[in-house]
Amino acid sequence: MTRISLAIFAAVLAATPGARAVATNDPPEFNEVLSLVREHLTGATDAELNRMAVEGLLTALRGKVSVVGGEVPPGGAVVEPLAKTSVLENNVAYLRVGRMGQPLARDLSTALTQLGMTNKLIGLVLDLRFTAGEDYAAAAAVADLFQAKARPLLDWGNGVIDSTAKTDAVKIPVAVLVNHESGGPAEALAGLLRETGVGLILGSQTAGRAMIGREFPLRNGQRLRVATLPVKIADGLALSPQGLKPDIEIAVAVQEERTFWDEPYGPAARLRVAGDGSLSLTNQVSGTNAPVPRPRPSEAGLVRARREGLNLDREFPEAPRTEPARPLLRDPALARAVDLLKGLAVVRASRS
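User: That's the sequence. What structure does it adopt?
Assistant: Structure tokens below.
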């Protein structure tokens, strides 16, 4: 039997005449849908329907509810904690976090030191979009890099973790990029850097998965882990299950966001505003920087020029040659972060 999600079951039932006497915007009752599907769908066993129902529920509540124990699913490609490092516009450090795990803080500190040896850095873009991992200790360790004084940082159910007093704390301003896939430790780190005055958050609202889980035994020997309490940051601020609202909201259409994230530079791109207010890539404007060749004079033109003693360079000028254009930073969130840090650097310089 082809795997059919309960969402599809519900859609089919809603479209069936007589399925509901009055059409509303409310979804059907879960138990009602499951009962009708179990009774009427040919070839569906109770075990299959149960598995689909559980998988659909866990997928919808990803990060807040999970099954612990039992068979371990095959792992995919290993994601490095620090996935990418570079310098943007000659003076802005860019660090992309692939996974919240050890030794992220050490790698991040080393990367900043190395980038600062060859560039005078004015700021840091810390990219937490699509960041994986559930290691809150790694998030606390990264936040500690930016704290000069001892202060409460993070509490994810194991007691409050404090920063350590230090003289070599990272002092450059930070722009933190987040999106709907920034959850758990990633959104806790973003919120913590904002609450401690390290930087601002740009992007779209986070996933709301920074929760402390409690495990409950299941009859099959596994355990159901349910998020019961919010993670707390700084001086006890509880993170909302609705996620973090960015300081500067940049809503990019979902289908375009990863494209920009994978390749932030490229030719100029036109963006359209989608129905939900987000930005979407429509088409690329491909230009050329090739020099325009000198117009080729006709034979009659050359004879006339020689007879009249005309200057060939003046009569048939060569178009000015242009330098190859620099690639454009077309990732809206990243471009806004770079502009923000550059503007802040100008303000600081004018005050010094």
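Residues 1-23, 70-75, 282-292 have pLDDT under 50 and may be disordered.
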